[in-house]
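Sharing a chain and its predicted structure for anyone who wants a worked example. Both blocks are below, sequence first, tokens second.
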Amino acid sequence: MRRLLYIIGILGLMSCTKEISIDYHSHDTRYVVEGTINNDGTEIRVSTTNAMEDNATGSDVNNATVTMTADDGTTATIPFVRNGYYRSKFAGIAGTVYKLDVEVDGHHFTSTSTMQRTPKMNEFKLVWKKMLTERYLFGDLRLQDIPNESNWYFMHIYRNGLGYRWAVMKDDKNPNKELQQLFTFFRDGQHDNDVLQDGDELHIVIRAIDQRAYDYLYSMQQMSSTATNPIDNFTGGCLGYFSANSEIEYYQDFYYRDVTEDDE
């Protein structure tokens, strides 16, 4: 919205023919909690949203009390580290249900998530595919579904350390077998910052998540087409989500010479 206001302001200075006013509604500040527990430990970030007039995207919350409780009764207090982050070596165990509690300034937020088993990547390749009259570069990710159970996955591709593409997927179309996720990267001949360059580092993180985390992320993925907010993942009225997940990582340097041509 801030960028939209800026662009409209520039156009107004150029034309000087009509004044355009934007009617937006100011909302109260809300807390945001983003939490994960995985094979290596726990990381929670607590922040607040800012008003439209504030150029910052959010404010760190450094005075929260953060607690993680497993369904076997094990409890750990997650200590504050810096800049809104709370971290601990308290690691998750597959099959365990975890409850995250965050208390701050009289507010109490909770969410639960079940730790999943570790996913397995079969292959990741880069491929040119013809779409009508244009060629597009795709990232073709293949997973081996965890057998004999329902599974949900969150896949995130980083480019040189920054988020580039992400998707969520469930195994209802090919359970117990190989699952495919195609990421659209860019059109052949496109020239902008979204285009990969030789030597770019791609970092792929694959997480096996539970259905509650999947439902939240899927609703977030649909925001642009439904014009709605994502579903609530916490009680207490905060934004954000909590996920107990197992994850794997894969690194690959990008070079055009490695891209294959899809003949299908």
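Comments welcome. Residues 120-210+246-261 form a domain with the Immunoglobulin-like fold (CATH 2.60.40.10).
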